[in-house]
Amino acid sequence: MANQQIGILHPGAMGTFIARCAQTSGNPVYWASDSRSPQTRARAEKHNLRETKSLAELVATCSIILSVCPPDAAEEVANQVCAHAFKGLYLDANAIAPQRAIRIGAMMTQCGARFVDGGIIGGTNWDARVTWLVLSGQNADEIAALFADSPLQTRVIGDAIGKASALKMCYAAYTKGTTALLSAILATAQSLGVRAELETQWSNDDANFANATRERVRRSTAKAWRFVGEMNEIAGTFRDAGLPGEFHDAAAEIYKRMARFKDAAPIPSLDDVLDALTKPGSEK
Amino acid sequence: MANQQIGILHPGAMGTFIARCAQTSGNPVYWASDSRSPQTRARAEKHNLRETKSLAELVATCSIILSVCPPDAAEEVANQVCAHAFKGLYLDANAIAPQRAIRIGAMMTQCGARFVDGGIIGGTNWDARVTWLVLSGQNADEIAALFADSPLQTRVIGDAIGKASALKMCYAAYTKGTTALLSAILATAQSLGVRAELETQWSNDDANFANATRERVRRSTAKAWRFVGEMNEIAGTFRDAGLPGEFHDAAAEIYKRMARFKDAAPIPSLDDVLDALTKPGSEK
Predict the structure, then answer these.
(1) Quick check: A173 and B188 CB within 8 A?
(2) Which residue among A146, B110, B241, B252 is least crowded, i.e. fewest CB within 10 A of its CB?
(3) Which of B160, B241, B253 sits opposite A278 (nearest CB)?
(4) What value of ipTM does the predicted structure carry?
(5) What is the pTM of this model?
């Protein structure tokens, strides 16, 4: 996989992590700078991403494009890449429903590009091999090869487009679904005046559970704004499979009420989080 | 608390456990036999519960009544006890919303009885002290005293009716809510052809999680039929507190689809459970 030019859409925190991992293949990684924030430019320059001025220039420059963006944007981003007549290899690594991955794959095939379905499991951890890129599709091995010498672990789970997205949806359904459920439970208990009693009861089962749960809820707030779209994708995935989508409708509502804490520093107190959950009308 | 006559409504598996625990106080426990099944009679006789023929006779006989029944029935059962002019001490130990407990308490006060709110956390385990009766209300200590020498641990969490029910709701919201969520996730993954891949991914985080989850889902089926009402109570509790009730609307739907496995022996295979979840239309 040498002599490739790799494009990253978009170099946010996770996108930059994926870009850095791809750089370990010896290939340069490009980004498109128009309409991006000064923070994104600083991040791109810090990690030696090469600048193109526009999506058109990125598409013309790159033989491989990696899409890492909020799930709500995934289909539109792919649409724009097609509109610029991309003919290379396109990875969608976003948290989207398998039906949406299949639609994007069909669009890419129609515009003459090759498509790989992907899903990222884990965070942006450079020092430990704890982040996975699950992949499916006939060209999945080509994407996996880019990351062979990086901290990102890859796992190809078959030829069918949609499988990698299905796995990502089912995995996140538990992790992020449970965090949302626990947030709602703490807020309900607080509202009913039994939070301390609930935490004591939890401690009978597991001495660390109450403390771990409080921290888990507080820490989820920073990224809650972009979990809303992911929860909606999971709800749609469940419904398409004949299962109730309401678990993740509720999770989307919880993360929506937490969205005000985007980029909050310091991390909000638990009382502030529970207030936001029980009094969504007071949202700024 | 000697020289009391205790009545149990109704001696199902949990009711009989609570009755046996109450017997350790040295007081006799009565049941009402009309319209009950031969299995219930056998269970009552095995554990030396004293027979009364009717609810009217039970109410006339007993100074304390313990209500342990499906949540859907709790209010109607209390209503009937009031209709027989009960003047003693009434415990509602059912998995009901705090608002319902408050309504039942008001009804009891109006008919001249004293009321204690309760919730049972844990199973019918006689040999280990792992089952809790949480209690609230001004007369809670009188109920707690009945169980001082039994395997049932009691915890009085205040004077306010509704607090014990609120704690029970919040506790079960996580345990039974998560079991339902995991059931839905396994069924979705099965339907999308990624169950094995999901289990492998889970095993990267925790070697035992996939196996424990499969067993947890299979074992939840036996009692699923009576979790439906409890999930509805939790959904109502969340909504009354201003939080989304949809988590437990979905959980109620999952347990409804599992209800066909009531009293199934042997315990169904995971494939049978997941079939029931994805093809509810084929329900017998």
Answers:
(1) yes
(2) B110
(3) B241
(4) 0.96
(5) 0.96
